[in-house]
Write a structure and sequence with these properties.
Blueprint lengths: L4 H4 E3 L5 H7 L6 E6 L4 H15 L6 E6 L4 H6 L7 E6 L2 E7 L4 H12 L4 H17 L3 H14 L4 H13 L3 H9 L9 H12 L7 H6 L1 H5 L1 H14 L4 H13 L3 H15 L2 H17 L4 H14 L2
Helix pairs in contact: 3-5, 6-7, 7-8, 8-9, 8-10, 9-10, 10-16, 13-14, 14-15, 14-16, 15-16, 15-17, 16-17
């Protein structure tokens, strides 16, 4: 052992929190366990967490805070339910959880702090579970797993892109934009990130900032009118290929990429060279926005191939 158990695990209070947690975490990661004597789950979690921390031989320390005796501190940390566990590094909170956790999860939690965890593998497992959860219709559960995957491994492009698409589906374009803008440099070329960014651009939310969006509000309100007008042109003149492309772009702005593809495919079939192959080029943008695994993309590519190679 490189330290004593007393030094590794200790109680603290409001007066000593700065020294025991903030300052100490600049040297070694510190886990803070907020608990109370009357809390049953706290009594179950604490000994297991202590055992996991003790096994690290001083690579991480643990501090316990009785919220009954330190209510002001609990309030400052916004502790709303217990057990509540926070991890500090370099004087800042970097991770945490609420409620009980199995020992296997506690080991992962501690390993992330000591740098011994394979965060990529853990994030991939969360991403896989999120995709399965999404298929079952539990969007909220999937979003939680995706957010956790991004938290522990920010460069996981699949998780970041999937969460951005969930935001877009609920009209949360600000959230999607911020999430994609925060993509680490090494993941910017990830196909999933590129696809999600293209989808956001098509929805009109890729580059505009909040002020520009406010200025463009009247245009957003007129979106349905523009789409109706474009579709009316196509109905009146089915072979007007410019109108077809206009309708495709209006549909893509609403997120209906499948219908947008159909108009592009019609235009390509009629005259693939029209307007410097504008319809085919926009079709490729739609494929990118949907992603290569999308059923819409697969069907669209198959139709395009049959047109081009007929």
């Amino acid at each position: 052992m490189t330290d004593t158990t007393t030094d590794i695990i200790k109680d603290t209070d409001t007066n000593n929190f700065m020294a025991d947690v903030i300052e100490m975490s600049k040297t070694v990661p510190v886990i803070v366990d907020f608990w109370a004597p009357w809390c049953g789950p706290c009594k179950q979690l604490m000994p297991v967490l202590e055992r996991v921390v003790s096994a690290q031989d001083g690579k991480v320390k643990m501090v316990k805070v009785n919220i009954d005796e330190n209510q002001e501190l609990a309030g400052q940390m916004r502790v709303q339910s217990i057990p509540a566990v926070f991890a500090f590094k370099d004087g800042q909170p970097v991770d945490g959880f609420m409620g009980g956790q199995p020992e296997s999860e506690l080991k992962k939690f501690v390993a992330r702090l000591t740098g011994e965890a394979d965060t990529g593998e853990e994030a991939e497992a969360l991403f896989t579970r999120a995709m399965e959860t999404l298929q079952s219709g539990d969007i909220g559960g999937a979003a939680q797993d995706l957010a956790q995957a991004i938290h522990i491994h920010p460069a996981h492009g699949g998780a970041r892109a999937a969460l951005a698409r969930i935001y877009m589906e609920s009209e949360g374009f600000d959230e999607a934009r911020a999430l994609l803008a925060d993509t680490p440099e090494e993941a910017l070329s990830d196909p999933d990130i590129v696809s999600a960014q293209t989808a956001l651009d098509l929805r009109g939310g890729g580059q505009a900032d909040a002020e520009e969006e406010a200025e463009d509000a009247p245009e957003a309100l007129a979106e349905n009118t523009a789409l109706t007008a474009a579709l009316s042109k196509v109905e009146a003149h089915p072979d007007d290929l410019d109108a077809r492309l206009e309708a495709a772009k209006a549909l893509a702005a609403t997120g209906d990429n499948g219908a947008a593809m159909e108009h592009c495919l019609y235009a390509v079939a009629k005259n693939r060279a029209h307007d410097d192959q504008a319809a085919r080029k926009f079709l490729l943008t739609l494929f990118q926005a949907e992603g290569s695994d999308s059923e819409i993309t697969r069907a669209g590519r198959a139709k395009l191939s049959s047109i081009l190679f007929a």
